[in-house]
Specification:
Blueprint lengths: L3 E3 L6 H6 L3 E5 L3 H14 L8 E4 L1 E4 L8 E3 L3 E4 L1 H9 L1
Parallel strand pairs: 1-2, 2-3, 4-6
Antiparallel strand pairs: 5-6
Length: 89
């Protein structure tokens, strides 16, 4: 059965990079995601890919061109086009 760590639970990053099959976290900004994934890959010792995911509360606005805004690193609000761009990044 796969083990997915949800949250940090005061675990060391090396544990999160090696023990669970995946890790889901919240409260991470878009500019922090790539460095966090790189750090996890650098700390990985078993050579297996351990997916990283993050959770946001999402408010999809009626205007598809409305800019995407992230509040408190957890609440994401915007139009469909900007959200798609946000997630691609």
């Amino acid at each position: 059965m796969p083990l997915v760590a949800i949250g940090r639970c005061r675990q060391d990053l090396s544990w999160l990079a090696n023990e669970p099959d995946a890790w889901i976290w919240h409260g991470i900004g878009e500019d922090e995601t790539a460095p966090a994934v790189k750090k996890l890959n650098d700390l990985n010792e078993d050579g297996n890919w351990h997916p990283f995911g993050y959770q946001n509360f999402v408010e999809l606005l009626d205007d598809p061109d409305a800019p995407c805004e992230l509040f408190n690193k957890i609440y994401l609000r915007g139009g469909a086009k900007s959200m798609a761009q946000f997630w691609r990044k």
